[in-house]
């Protein structure tokens, strides 16, 4: 009898313990009874029916979903890979369980589609320079799409944009060529300014045009040699006769109204 009583007591204690379910702060739970949703449990002490009730616990805290780098093509037809993370949160546990079969996988697939669509509307330059715009657009689109899933998409972050070695090398060459072009333009502008200043200083002096012709020819040759040293530049050939025309423009650009040609008389360049 004592053994039977002890066994009965153990059964009762086990039943009572199974009937008590404690939900921690920050979590929620849904009770399924015989496969159907019965009720939602709040944090604290809850009573359920053992053997009949199944308790499914989920967190209401913010969660991180890491997305494997995805292939995408920009509007200017550049293939890239984009590394993204999504911060999300369950707001309605019943919708999260029953509105979609696999919540995380469905969210992941939705990110794939939205990301590719967004990247496809932007050039590579915009993708690289406007990550915040992409993040905001994706966050709004995903949050709207998952509203009926009982989920809140808090934010999306594009963490890395991966380029192939071929594309990266091509971009580096373009950047080097652009830097060289700007430097060449800066040197050319400085040279023209110096010649203009010298032309004004030599006005009215003997042999001024011969001096300027020599200086321009020297700078012209030096510029071609400098351009030839760069793999990113092209050599530009100029008709030597154009030097004389350019010199005439420089010397006569400030000609006074009386046609005296800046004190150089009627001297002309042949």
Plain-language structure description:
The chain is of the alpha+beta class and 270 residues long. It has three domains: 2-59, no CATH class; 63-163, 2-Layer Sandwich (Tetrahydropterin Synthase, Chain A), CATH 3.30.479.30; 176-252. It is 50% helix and 23% strand. The protein is built from eight helices and eight strands. It has helices at 2-19, 93-98, 103-119, 124-129, 131-145, 165-202, 208-228, 240-252; strands at 20-23, 27-33, 36-41, 44-47, 53-59, 63-73, 79-90, 151-162. The chain has a three-stranded antiparallel β-sheet with strand order 3-2-5, with no helix packed on it. It has a three-stranded antiparallel β-sheet with strand order 6-7-8. A hairpin with a 2-residue loop joins β2 (27-33) and β3. α3 (103-119) packs across α5 (131-145). The protein is rod-shaped, with a radius of gyration of 39 Å. It starts with a helix and ends in an 18-residue tail after the last helix.
């Amino acid at each position: 009898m004592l053994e039977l009583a002890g066994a009965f007591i153990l059964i009762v204690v086990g039943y009572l313990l199974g009937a008590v379910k404690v939900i921690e702060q920050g979590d929620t739970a849904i009770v399924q009874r015989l496969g159907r949703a019965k009720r939602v449990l709040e944090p604290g002490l809850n009573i359920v029916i053992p053997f009949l009730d199944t308790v499914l616990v989920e967190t209401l805290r913010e969660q991180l979903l890491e997305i494997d780098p995805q292939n995408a093509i920009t509007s200017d037809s550049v293939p890239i890979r984009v590394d993204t993370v999504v911060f999300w949160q369950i707001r309605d546990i019943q919708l999260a369980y029953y509105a979609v079969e696999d919540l995380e996988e469905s969210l992941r697939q939705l990110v794939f589609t939205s990301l590719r669509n967004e990247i496809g509307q932007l050039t590579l330059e915009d993708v690289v320079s406007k990550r915040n715009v992409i993040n905001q657009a994706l966050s709004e689109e995903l949050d709207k799409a998952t509203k009926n899933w009982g989920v809140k998409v808090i934010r999306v972050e594009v963490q890395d944009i991966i380029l192939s070695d071929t594309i990266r090398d091509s971009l580096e060459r373009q950047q080097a060529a652009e830097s060289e072009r700007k430097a060449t333009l800066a040197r050319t502008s400085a040279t023209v300014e110096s010649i203009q200043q010298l032309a004004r200083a030599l006005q009215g002096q003997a042999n001024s045009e011969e001096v300027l012709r020599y200086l321009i020819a020297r700078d012209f040759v030096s510029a071609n040699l400098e351009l030839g040293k760069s793999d990113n530049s092209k050599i530009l050939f100029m008709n030597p006769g154009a030097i004389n025309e350019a010199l005439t423009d420089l010397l006569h650009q400030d000609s006074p109204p009386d046609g005296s040609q800046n004190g150089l008389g009627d001297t002309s360049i042949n």
